[in-house]
Design brief:
The complex is a heterodimer of chains A (721) and B (207).
Chain A: H1 3-19, E1 22-29, E2 40-43, E3 49-51, E4 57-62, E5 67-73, E6 80-85, E7 92-95, E8 112-116, E9 122-124, H2 128-131, H3 139-143, E10 149-150, E11 159-160, E12 168-172, E13 175-177, E14 199-205, E15 219-225, E16 233-239, E17 242-250, E18 254-264, H4 266-271, E19 277-294, E20 298-315, E21 324-343, E22 347-364, E23 367-387, E24 390-408, E25 414-435, E26 438-449, E27 454-466, E28 471-482, H5 486-489, E29 500-513, E30 516-533, E31 544-561, E32 568-582, E33 598-608, E34 613-622, E35 626-627, E36 638-639, E37 643-655, E38 658-665, E39 675-678, E40 690-693, E41 700-710
Parallel strand pairs in A: 1-7, 8-9, 12-15
Antiparallel strand pairs in A: 1-4, 2-3, 2-5, 5-6, 8-14, 10-11, 12-13, 14-15, 16-17, 16-41, 17-18, 18-19, 19-20, 20-21, 21-22, 22-23, 23-24, 24-25, 25-26, 26-27, 27-28, 28-29, 29-30, 30-31, 31-32, 32-33, 33-34, 34-37, 35-36, 37-38, 38-41, 39-40
Chain B: H1 2-16, H2 18-34, H3 38-51, H4 57-71, H5 76-96, H6 101-117, H7 119-140, H8 145-157, H9 159-162, H10 167-182, H11 195-206
Helix pairs in contact in B: 2-3, 3-4, 4-5, 4-6, 5-6, 6-7, 6-8, 7-8, 8-10, 10-11
InterPro entries (chain A): Beta-barrel_TonB_sf, CarboxyPept-like_regulatory, Plug_dom, Plug_dom_sf, TonB-dep_rcpt-like
Signal peptide (chain A): 1-20
Main location (chain A): membrane
Chain lengths: 721, 207
């Protein structure tokens, strides 16, 4: 070996290392030319690099030669990668583009109130449903503390922005629930069927929602079951109104949760004076189960619930001397399966089906009213991330509803009514992210209803603009249609009905800072095609038409804060609404009886560490609601006195896994009146007598003991209360 | 002459092999971290991670540097950025290897930082995940002192809220300290932190 040659070679190589130090320098700026400090600048594949200074400047030396890739990365910006000549990159300006997928990018918020892990701005947190005083574990009652809702105490369902309760549809994992509420009768409030137990996210839209959802005039409530069970555990509850039992098993790829409950209101009805006479207390036996299986690219979920309810009560009626007896039995079954997964590149597939069955057996004095409903939905949805700036989704739905009702007064009248409805719908929607500060969503829904023999196209559009780090504006517009409610279409002949229609215009402002959220939303809703009839009650020989109309306009305000005082959280909701309708058998345009012009809710929660307790207060106030007094000439001219209810709850941790829970609604015992029922005929003096519509009881109280058994000693049922 | 050439050749060989470069780079990053320059340290670890796709350590330290910094960060926006960066770095390694005990300890630490940042919002949600991550870390390596200590430390931190019995947890801390004594890191840069904090917690236990 020629040692000299080797030496030379080595020397040359060494010198190349020593002398080939190239300096790379420049400045990192954002789109507005402002310096970006803290960015990581380096030559790809080497260790050579630097961090930009406060002024965005950087400079480093590299031993790399020739053409190399320069990478500049900083979390909230799109990573910059460019081929450069290392010996010729000095004092260059590198401009970074803000990533549209950044955590604080704009999101369309008009109309939507969200809760849960995935929501960027949670108006409600998952725990809130159960720790809000007065909610008693009822999802619906917790939502009634949000703006845009009306407290309709004798009904219990969600009334949104001047809409009837039937105008809100409930969806579990994106699939409709045909019978979301428990069975009830005249002026006895119902509850949501779903325990908050199994849901991790809730989105409540008070208008202007996506084209994915149809058959809802006012609002959609989207409940999502948890993707994953926490771990193996057993929950038990002993309550003043019944028993609870739950068990969760978790395996490597799947998990199963089962919950059962038996509710009996007898002890409560014995203690608290009741405004109605109960022959048999409200009782229910229910079970819910969720099974989840994780595939490599997707997740399959099955949710099923069964619910059997009964009660028997006597209610005074102004038209009869004797009270009317109602004896009700209801069985309800709901099944929902869904699969969500990714296929190919950037495609996401969601598919599912639901089936609901509800059977009522009701006895009014001697008459029998039996009805049953079978409802199913099939759904397919595809979503494609075309680029970072454009997402396209489209899908199809098929709804099947069969309803049958038999009435027999066990004397002279016997009648059968029912309908079969099939609705096929298609929708498509595009999400466009112009920049981090500007986003839009445009779509439409095409729907064909065989019962109505009708095809409708409804456009939806929304846009959001972020004006600063903490605030943004959104605007949403949409047309919505819905098949008239069962009370009408069970008498449908020869496609005589048309869909009812509404248009929403919503302007939203949102301010968010850590621990604080403020929302203001102004809206206008235009109703048309509402069903009208010409009789006192809806009956087989009523003459129906679709000539009704109406409007609702108002302002909703929401403020939530957890910074004011340590361990204190509170929110305030205020709604103003002005709404009139000419529908049903209204003589003229008037404000319906479920609308109160002003509503105010204040919810507080306070954790006292020393007492191991969380206490909460909720105060709900609304101004009087209209009612029609036949003694006056003007239609719907009466107004009830204002409504107020102050509720209190207290959760006490005996040990980590044992909780004592106490709650009482309407602490002050305010005598609330929801409206008046007037006699059909005047008395001898020519006066129509009346009877107040009252709560079934002025107060509700609840005491419960909850125990969780699991290996994880930190878990408890606080979140379930 | 031959001697000189041999020395030089050896020197070059050592220069050419990646190992010292890796060691130098990592050493530089640790030095920056030691000086409190967390942004620069994190950036250095990120550069090494981008160049050395086969080692899980650079990304592990990206996660560790950012997570530990997040514990004392007051600015909410910065904190979220740090924890997101930590999670991204950890995710990169977690995809490659789901059986590394240290990565699960790191995951638990990130969740803990979220809880510390906002106990009211994140407490319930992440506590379960913290415990799951430690359980997984212990299952993969029962003698990992960081897993044993971390699990006990997290529960001790929450004891004043949950009222759990601290005695068995303190026993776990003692056990972790013994494990720290016998623990041998696989490479000079493998995780070996935690003993100081454990001793501190042990003092608290003895009060």
């Amino acid at each position: 070996m020629n040692t000299k040659l080797l030496f030379t070679a080595v020397f040359l190589f060494l010198s190349s290392i020593i002398f080939a130090q190239n300096t790379i320098s420049g400045k990192v700026v954002d789109e507005k030319g402002k310096p970006v400090p803290g960015a990581n600048i380096y030559i790809d594949g080497t260790y050579d690099g630097a961090t930009s200074s406060e002024t965005g400047e950087f400079s480093f030396e590299t031993t790399a030669t020739g053409n190399q890739y320069l990478v500049v990365s900083f979390l909230i910006y799109e990573t910059f990668k460019k081929e450069i000549e290392v010996n010729n990159f000095k004092n260059q300006i590198v401009k970074l583009k803000e990533s549209v997928n950044a955590l604080d990018a704009v999101v369309i918020t008009a109309g939507t109130l969200e809760s849960g892990d995935k929501a960027r701005v949670s108006v409600l947190k998952p725990l809130d449903i159960v720790t809000t005083a007065g909610s008693a574990g009822n999802i619906i009652a917790a939502l009634q503390t949000l703006p845009g809702t009306q407290t309709v105490g004798e009904d219990g369902r969600l009334f949104v922005r001047g809409g009837e309760a039937s105008e809100t549809q409930t969806f579990v994992d994106g699939i409709r629930v045909a019978q979301p509420y428990g069975a009830t009768t005249n002026n006895v409030p119902t509850r949501g069927r779903f325990s908050p137990f199994l849901f991790s996210g809730i989105a409540f839209s008070t208008g202007g929602y996506s084209a994915e959802y149809g058959e809802a005039l006012s609002s959609v409530l989207l409940l999502n079951t948890q993707d994953e069970a926490d771990y193996n555990k057993t929950d038990m509850g002993l309550m003043s109104v019944g028993l609870l039992f739950g068990n969760t098993q978790k395996w490597a790829k799947s998990s199963l949760s089962v919950n059962t409950a038996y509710i009996n209101l007898a002890p409560y009805q014995a203690v608290i004076p009741q405004n109605v006479e109960w022959n048999n207390p409200y009782q229910s036996l229910s079970g819910e189960t969720v099974y989840r299986y994780h595939f490599t690219n997707g997740i399959f979920k099955l949710y099923a619930s069964f619910n059997s309810e009964k009660f028997d009560l006597n209610q005074k009626n102004i038209n009869f001397e004797e009270p009317i007896r109602t004896d009700l039995n209801n069985n309800n079954f709901y099944l929902n399966t869904s699969y969500k997964g990714s296929i190919g590149t950037g495609w996401q597939l969601t598919t599912g089906l639901s089936y609901g069955y509800s059977k009522n057996k009701i006895k009014f004095n001697l008459s029998d009213l039996d009805n049953d409903e079978n409802a199913a939905q099939l759904k397919l949805k595809l979503r494609k991330n075309v680029s970072e700036h454009f997402k396209l989704s489209f899908g199809a739905d098929y709804f099947i509803t069969k309803f049958n009702e038999n009435f027999d007064d066990n004397d002279a009248i016997s009648a059968t009514n029912g309908y079969d409805s099939n609705i096929a719908a298609f929708y498509t929607e595009g999400d466009i992210l112009f920049s981090k500060n500007l986003a839009a969503k445009v779509g439409f829904r095409l729907s064909n209803n065989s019962l109505l023999d009708e095809t409708t196209i409804t456009p939806r559009a929304s846009i959001a603009y972020k004006v600063s780090k903490t605030s943004q504006f959104s605007f949403a517009y949409g047309d919505f249609t819905q098949t008239p409610v069962v009370d009408y279409i069970k008498y449908s002949k020869y496609h005589q009905f048309e869909s009812e229609k509404a248009s929403h215009y919503i302007l939203n402002y949102q301010f968010t800072r850590h621990g604080q959220t403020f929302r203001a939303e102004a809206y206008y809703k235009d109703y048309s095609n509402l069903v009208k009839y010409d009789t006192r009650d809806i009956q087989y020989n009523s003459v129906f038409n679709n000539n009704g109309s109406g409007y609702a306009k108002g302002l909703d305000l929401f403020w939530r804060d957890s910074n004011l005082y340590k361990n204190l959280e509170y929110w305030i909701s205020y709604s103003y609404i002005d709404s009139e309708r000419d529908y049903k058998n209204f003589r003229t345009t008037a404000t319906p009886n479920f609308i109160a012009n002003h509503s105010l809710s204040i919810v507080t929660k306070y954790f006292i560490t020393d007492w191991k307790s969380q206490i909460g207060f909720t105060n709900s106030f609304s101004t009087g609601r209209p009612y029609d007094n036949p003694n006056e000439t003007q239609f719907m001219n009466g107004k009830t006195k204002a409504y107020n209810s102050l509720s209190f709850n207290w959760a006490y941790l005996l040990t980590t896994q044992k909780i004592l829970y106490f709650s009482v609604s309407n602490l002050l015992g305010t005598q609330n009146i929801f409206g008046y029922d007037y006699a059909r005929t005047p008395d001898a003096a020519g006066v129509y007598n009346r009877q107040a519509v009252l709560p079934t009881a002025d107060r509700f109280f609840f005491v419960g003991f909850f125990w969780t058994i699991s290996q994880n000693k930190n878990d408890n049922q606080l979140k379930n209360l | 002459m031959t001697k000189i050439i041999t020395v030089i050749t050896l020197f070059i060989c050592s220069l050419l092999s990646a190992q010292p470069q890796f060691e130098q780079g990592m050493g530089k990053a640790f030095q920056l971290w030691g000086e409190g320059k967390t942004t620069e340290a994190s950036a250095m670890f990120e550069r090494i991670a981008a160049a050395e796709k086969t080692s899980w350590l650079p990304n592990y330290y990206v996660a560790l540097v950012n997570t530990t910094a997040a514990f004392s960060e007051k600015d909410r926006t910065k904190l979220e950025l740090m924890l997101t960066k930590a999670q991204d770095a950890l995710d990169t390694e977690m995809i490659k290897d789901q059986n590394n005990s240290e990565l699960y300890v790191m995951q638990a630490l990130i969740y803990t930082a979220w809880v510390v940042a906002d106990p009211m919002t994140n407490g319930q949600k992440y506590s379960i995940k913290v415990m799951e991550a430690y359980a997984k870390a212990k299952a993969l390596d029962p003698n990992n002192p960081r897993a044993v200590f971390g699990e006990a430390d997290y529960q001790l931190g929450g004891a004043k809220w949950t009222g759990v019995d601290t005695k068995p947890l303190c026993v776990e801390v003692d056990k972790a300290i013994e494990l720290f004594a016998t623990f041998k890191p696989e490479t000079p840069f493998s995780p070996k932190w935690g003993l100081e904090r454990a001793l501190e917690v042990q003092k608290g236990c003895k009060k």
